[in-house]
Amino acid sequence: MNSHPFFTLDHTDQATKARAGTIITDHGVIPTPMFMPVGTQGAVKAIEQRTLSELDAAIILGNTYHLYLRPGTETLKTMGGLHRFASWTRPILTDSGGFQVFSLRELRKMSEIGVEFRSHIDGSRHLFTPENVVDTQRAIGSDIFMVLDECTPYPSTYTEARTSMELTVRWAERSALRHRDAPFLYGHRQFQFAIGQGSTYHDLRRDCMQRLVDMDVDGYAIGGLSVGEPADDMYAITETSTAVMPVHKPRYLMGVGTPENILTAIGLGVDLFDCVMPTRNARNGTIYTTHGRVNIKNARYKLVDEPIDDGLDSYISRNYSLAYLRHLFNAGEILGLMLATAQNLALYLWLTRTARTHILAGTYKEWAAATAQRLMQHRP
Amino acid sequence: MNSHPFFTLDHTDQATKARAGTIITDHGVIPTPMFMPVGTQGAVKAIEQRTLSELDAAIILGNTYHLYLRPGTETLKTMGGLHRFASWTRPILTDSGGFQVFSLRELRKMSEIGVEFRSHIDGSRHLFTPENVVDTQRAIGSDIFMVLDECTPYPSTYTEARTSMELTVRWAERSALRHRDAPFLYGHRQFQFAIGQGSTYHDLRRDCMQRLVDMDVDGYAIGGLSVGEPADDMYAITETSTAVMPVHKPRYLMGVGTPENILTAIGLGVDLFDCVMPTRNARNGTIYTTHGRVNIKNARYKLVDEPIDDGLDSYISRNYSLAYLRHLFNAGEILGLMLATAQNLALYLWLTRTARTHILAGTYKEWAAATAQRLMQHRP
Question: How many domains does chain B have?
């Protein structure tokens, strides 16, 4: 192992709260801000691992709920963990599965001990507790893993949000205890992040985050956002949360969002992001480019013999035309999903990489405003 | 342009009729025997162009019927032809679309002038003639293109097969005339192959091929096989056909086949092959490896922590395990289709590349027999 600190704060912007930092794991370095592509089931949809590396993805996500069900904890242990299994040598972060389990409205039962649920695949019964979710993430071998939390639905009453938040705090304590006791399985270190909840109530959010901060875990996440609340609430809660979060630990805004959301949240002091939007929207034909959004199925692109995005260095962005990509979608070719996915991830990874450059140069605020406007428009 | 001959015969095997040759086009060199991956609609399904290059695919196929309907002749002309449109810089061969049109049983009407058909996409009416199919392939800009033929169904009576074959010969004459008159559109040369028909009747096959040989086109194909006839008939007709084909022109067996079919046909003097089998079977979970066939959905591969195929140099074959590939299929991940496709094409391209090495070394017969046996078995 090494003696580098897990997180180093390299620079804080003067005009905003944006930060440039460096996370060091045993699988490699993650410069922040950083977008993390979502590989729920041990694969990012429609893209090869080596293409992710080529696009400078420093870390990808996995999901404990999905990996626990398929391929399963025993398979992952036999295979030496998810890194070896998926041939991905860079860092992995796993979500606890809390969000997925709580999405199974009809199929779950909450209690103090944990959450019982039925598999969405075969209906079999399972129990997630804060402790066994740590154990499962030991088997997965992620470099950074999330505690089990209760993702409070939106909207919730104040009483519901407080009750739920209190449970999340008690579960975080149990998770931290388990993390101290359970051995690492594969010779590399694993870092634990706690998740703040409290719905859209600022005092609950502050209270929750402060109690998590007192536990002194490796990093802190803002959960329960991007679940239907207005964007202004999301930004306000993010600002309230980062105000309480320690300066010298990484900050992760879960499940967010559009390029504009990410640029705004970076300005509020967030370091890490994940979202299915670039990959899912790619498969639906919405392409993000440095010139704006493209609905690639639109007939207007039939004869547009220009690169998908000449504003990026990516091989795929520069090597295929919008007209060809439109043809692939029109003809139902899998290659269309592949090229669109690579483009959208190239854009998102360019976004956080370039944000870091501007934070370090002191030009973040102006750049972010102009870039958000440019990326969210329809491509001229 | 250059003054190299289109085809050079480098070596003929003593123990079999296998040949090693070299085709030179303006987009590059094709060592033969060669398997040509099928990219019907301007894309090989579930694989990127640069991965095809990496696997040593020297030439890919396109299909005139499909490309004529989508993206259409005018789009292809505007885009400067299929090479530019699809960002594929190596040679392309296009089938005439005869096979596809004749598969539209209910939607087509034959006449001396050509074949009327309705689009499988929108029901619109179209007419293919030997002449306009040459013109469409001018717009596509393929390096090698096929004449319009009538693909005789199996089984056919002798009279039906003879009538159909006679039409194919008359159409080949019209195609050759058009090829002489119509200009190339993109500054590179296009070579024309005629297609022998005659069902399973050896005298019809000989007569047809001899009359095509007398037309002195650039290469000769055997059509109307792999349409349901027994393998022994396919081999016998192939042998009858290659006996009439000129030695110093390339020979193409259309739509064939399994690794065993290809090895046998190479031994009968065939140079070029295409088949959807490696790509289509990949998407269905049948994986070809140098150790035999694998049904990757089978639970026996759940914990097999071995490379997909350690007998190949391919990055994907060596870098991912059978257990991971099974998980991807089990979980419905697009990456599974991508890795399986790359493996099967790596195997097919290894097959014809290695066949060439053994032909040149004089060891083809023994190697082909052992290899066919090994590849067609279930992986131990």
Answer: 2
Please tell me the distance from the alpha carbon of residue B191 to that of residue B203, in angstroms, as a whole number.
28
* Confidence check: pLDDT of A279 > 50: yes
The chain B residues in contact with chain A (CB within 8 A) are 41-48, 50, 66, 70-71, 75, 78-80, 85-87, 302-303, 305, 315-316, 319-321, 323-324, 327-328, 330-331, 333-339
Average pLDDT over residues A70-90: 98
A1: pLDDT strictly greater than 50: no
- Report the pLDDT value the prediction gives residue B2, as an integer from 0 to 100: 52
In this structure, are strands A92-95 and A144-146 parallel, antiparallel, or unpaired?
parallel
pLDDT of residue B85: 98
Residues A77 and A135 in one domain: yes
**Strand runs labelled E in chain A:** 7-12, 19-25, 28-32, 34-36, 60-63, 92-95, 108-110, 115-118, 125-128, 144-146, 191-196, 219-222, 251-253, 272-274, 286-289, 292-295
* Closest C-alpha to B60, from B15, B21, B90, B17: B90
Amino acid at B101: V
Kindly state whether residue A1 falls inside one of the protein's structural domains: no
The residue whose two tokens read 């969210």 is A376
> pLDDT at residue B1 above 80?
no
Question: Can you give the residue range of the structural domain that contains B304?
Answer: 282-376
In the predicted structure, residue A265 carries a pLDDT above the cut 60: yes
Q: Which of A149, A218, A274, A309 is catalytic?
A: A274
Per-residue pLDDT band for B233 (boundaries 50, 70, 90) equals very high
Statement to judge: residues A210 and A226 lie in one domain: yes
A interface with B, Cβ–Cβ < 8 A, is 41-48, 50, 66, 70-71, 75, 78-80, 85-87, 302-303, 305, 315-316, 319-321, 323-324, 327-328, 330-331, 333-339
With contact defined as beta carbons under 8 Å apart, do B309 and B290 qualify?
yes
Kindly state the average pLDDT of the residues B250-263: 98
My answer on whether B336 and B211 are in the same domain is no
**ipTM strictly over 0.95?**
yes
pLDDT, one tens digit per residue, over B93-127 is: 999 988 888 888 778 899 999 999 999 999 999 99
Residues of B in contact with A48 (CB under 8 A): 316, 335, 338-339
Q: Are both B99 and B226 inside the same structural domain? A: yes
Residue B51 in any domain: the answer is no
First to last CA, chain B: 51
The whole-number pLDDT of residue A102 equals 84
- Cα first-last separation, chain A: 51
Q: What pLDDT score was predicted for residue A2?
A: 52
Residue B63: inside a domain, yes or no? yes
d(CA A148, CA A169): 10
Domain boundary among the residues A275, A300, A315 is at A275
| CA–CA gap between residue A77 and residue A62 (Å, rounded) | 15
Nearest CA in chain B to A39: B333
| Mean pLDDT of all residues in A268-280 | 98
pLDDT value at residue B105 = 78
Same domain, B164 and B308: no
In this structure, the answer to whether residues B161 and B96 fall within a common structural domain is yes
Do B130 and B103 share a structural domain?
Answer: yes
Say whether both B198 and B299 belong to one domain: no
Interval B60-79 mean pLDDT: 98
Residue with token string 């190479």: B266
Q: What CATH number is given to the structural domain containing B222?
A: 3.20.20.105
How many beta carbons lie within 10 A of that of residue A280, not counting itself? 14
Work out the average pLDDT over A95-112: 88
What mean pLDDT, rounded, does chain A reach?
Answer: 97
Distance CA B282, CA B54 (A): 18
pLDDT tens-place string over residues A117-139: 999 999 999 999 999 999 999 99
Domain boundary among A252, A275, A298: A275
Main-chain phi, psi angles of B25, to 5 degrees: -115, 170
